[in-house]
Amino acid sequence: MDIQSLFGLDGRVALVTGGSRGIGKMFVEGLLAAGCARVYISARKAAQMEETIGEFGADRVIGIQADLSQMDGMQHLADELAAREEKLDILINNAGAAWGQDFLEFSEAGWHRTMDLNVKTPFFLTQKLHGLLAAAASPARPAKVIHVSSIDGLRINPWETYAYQASKAAVIQLTRRMAARLITDNIVVTSIAPGAFASEMNRAAKDAPDASAAGIPAKRIGTKEDMAAAAIYLCSRAGDYVVGETLAVDGGIVNALLPSHFANPAGE
Question: At residue 191, does pLDDT exceed 60?
């Protein structure tokens, strides 16, 4: 058994939405390290994309500016990718939004923005990229789609992020349903549920990692290696027989948090 062929991604083409920063950037670095030939990233802000491209090299990372909260933005991304590539081996639906507000004041705008970007976008972007994914897929080497959910879809957090928690639970169920359909096209759909990782969405972990770590059974927040390794596993041959599953990458918050920890919860 050859470990490189088991976990390597040599020559594959990937797209990571929201890949210019945070967890998305961790995915990009991991995919490149595992051998991807090219990783496309999308973001609303061109400056952030250019910074990431400059870090990894324009020969390996290609940016496509797109607002994925809108259907025409999704279509633009799909069209641009189709103009450059004949197939797509890996799609990581990472772009997302969060919204926190008191229950009695929670706005419809916040609800729609969060639910649209977190649930509608992964579905319709995958639909629009189906042709490229199917072109790359075979029984011997299926194409891969990873939805980025959250541990907040697996358990309740103490913050009033109603739409976010509901949307991430929806993504987990959507993963199962899409997996059942797309496996017939040799496309494997799974989900990664991150816990506390330093990102713009998780300011607590970014700005106060030690305080966040206090409520995590593993006693630390996640690192880029933790997130990259999860993606490499699911995207490579090692993950070919894992279909429709959600992998919690959280240091034990979901499955190993004992009652003594409840007073100091941590997470996304």
Answer: yes
